[in-house]
Design a protein that fits this description.
The chain has 23 helices and no strands. The chain has 515 residues and is mainly α. It has two domains: 12-226, Up-down Bundle (Growth Hormone, Chain: A), CATH 1.20.1250.20; 279-476, Growth Hormone, Chain: A (Up-down Bundle). Helix 4 runs antiparallel to helix 20. The protein starts with a helix and ends with a helix.
Length: 515
């Protein structure tokens, strides 16, 4: 058994210590997404086969996939933009209920338009990836629960656990369909049974949401930040209240024998602007995020051109491997993705977020372009596994970077838009690959994928390597520093020379006004 000191250093290096320090909410969030990723293998594996068993034409299946994807994008964007106002826990709970409702409809109905409405307005994953507003909201919650010392580690475990759950879910779903088909004698009944399981997982997810605390909300995040600065309760709040412009102005006016502007009759005070129900993205945040969104769109387009399903199709066409072996390759790839993501947090601590994103992802990008070159299956599979091992190591640092460069109140909205941009760009990729494959140039898709991904990596390094990452992004640092300086001035025993001179000049001005 390893000595306690060695275990302690190992758990700290792997980020387990950081995860434990965040507490129960982090574990619930990770468990919630792991459950969804495990469940998402059900519709992604059987949806097209389910429609085929119902004798739906291929054209309708294509329309269904497209409309479901568009509905998912629009619904996710809407819910993430209002999540901070409505409540993040309510959004996660409501999304889980919608997921369960969609599962029930698919388990009971076989009518195309009923299923389409349930898929567009519900939560059904048609790609095997996470769908709905969940991920953006969860990443915003985890970013608020952590600081820059623990954020990378916690997000790495978020990616690792959920990727591993997705790999296991796909394997279990395939074996379950095979077993149910044998026992029932009807493949359609087997699919209906799996959708009942999908609905049950949605209900279980909604129960998990009830365990989340108020720390997950935007208001709870702000309260925690104030407490960290020593202003959470008690005298701190009273001192801050005493320092606000309205109170200091009233003291000055009282000393001058004048009424404050707010109390003077006939004087109009501008009404406070009503806060929007939607998350607002400030101009400084947009200046950074627009560049990042363009790069992420390029990277997502590349991912859409060569997803696992199309890579399996390419290998099957080129080497004629058995379906069981193709399944093993996919499961091994997802397992290596999960394993690689564990080390993203420790590397980010030593190399920085941007360096970790670029120099772990760049070798994976280069290998993508070389996948068509080998003439035998062994080297091709080796390149695929190498690509997969490094492919997910940029996810946690990327989320940590976004959380660091945007203001806390903008995180959920910014991450929701990021998810939308990635999904839309990714949806274009399969069409491009289908066209290339139809013309006998499938290999061009891999070359284009490599070029796009390399462009993304180099663009990240050029545009963002000099961006300073601070815990409180945007204008919050300046506001916080002003308030801290004022608080220190009230609590301090002496005043600075500048403060003294300002005080003397103010007294002189008041004396002149009295004369």
């Amino acid at each position: 058994m390893a000595p306690p000191a060695v275990r302690s250093r190992l758990t700290a290096f792997l980020g387990v210590t950081s995860l434990n320090s965040v507490g129960r909410d982090a574990y619930i969030i990770i468990a919630l997404r792991s459950l969804r990723m495990f469940t998402s293998g059900i519709p992604s594996l059987i949806l097209a086969l389910f429609f085929s068993s119902l004798k739906f034409p291929d054209s309708r299946i294509g329309v269904f996939m497209t409309l479901t994807l568009l509905g998912d994008v629009l619904l996710s964007l809407l819910l993430t933009l209002v999540a901070d106002k409505l409540g993040r826990r309510k959004i996660l709970f409501g999304g889980s209920v919608m997921m369960a409702s969609s599962g029930v409809v698919f388990a009971l109905s076989e009518k195309f338009w009923v299923l389409l409405v349930a898929a567009v307005f519900g939560i059904i994953s048609v790609t095997g990836a996470d769908c709905g507003p969940f991920r953006a909201v969860e990443e915003s919650i985890l970013s608020g629960l952590t600081d820059d010392q623990t954020r990378g580690d916690v997000l790495s475990w978020y990616v690792t656990a959920t990727t591993l759950a997705g790999a296991i879910g796909s394997e279990v779903a395939g074996r379950t369909v095979h077993a149910l088909e044998k026992s029932s004698g009807s493949v359609t009944k087997a699919y209906h049974a799996l959708f009942w399981a999908y609905a049950a997982f949605g209900i279980f997810g909604s129960i998990l949401c009830l365990g989340l605390s108020e720390r997950c909300e935007a208001a709870g995040e702000k309260h925690a930040n104030m407490k960290e600065r020593g202003r959470g309760t008690g005298e701190g709040e009273e001192l801050l209240e005493a320092m606000t412009p309205s109170t200091t102005d009233s003291f000055d006016d009282a000393a001058d024998g004048q009424e404050s502007p707010a109390r003077r009759p006939g004087l109009r005070v501008p009404a406070q602007k009503k806060q929007s129900y939607f998350s607002q993205i400030s101009k400084p945040t947009r200046n950074i995020m627009f560049k990042l969104w363009i790069l992420l769109a390029i990277d997502s387009l590349a991912d859409g051109m060569t997803p696992y399903s199309l890579m399996n199709y390419y290998i099957d066409q080129k080497f004629h491997l058995s379906k069981a072996r193709l399944g093993d390759i996919t499961s091994a790839s997802q397992f290596l993705c999960a394993l690689g993501a564990v080390f993203a947090g420790p590397l980010a601590k030593h190399m920085g977020l941007i360096n970790t994103m670029v120099f772990t992802h760049l070798p994976s990008s280069i290998s993508s372009a070389f996948i068509p070159l080998p003439k035998t299956a062994g080297p091709t599979i080796g390149l695929l596994l190498f690509r997969a091992a490094l492919n997910s190591m940029d996810q946690a640092p990327r989320t940590a970077f976004i959380a660091a460069v945007v203001r806390p109140e903008e995180r959920t909205g910014a991450m929701g838009i990021t998810s939308m941009v990635r999904t839309l760009a990714m949806s274009v990729g399969p069409s491009i690959t289908g066209f290339l494959s139809g013309s006998g140039s499938f290999w061009v898709a891999f070359l284009a994928t490599g070029i796009c991904r390399i462009t993304y990596d180099l663009g990240l390094w050029v545009l963002f390597i000099n961006v300073k990452v601070t815990r409180d992004a945007g204008g919050e640092d300046e506001a916080g520093s002003v308030e801290d300086d004022a608080l220190n001035g009230l609590l301090g025993d002496t005043e600075s020379e500048d403060d003294t001179e300002r005080g003397q000049s103010m007294d002189t001005d008041r004396g002149e006004r009295r004369v």
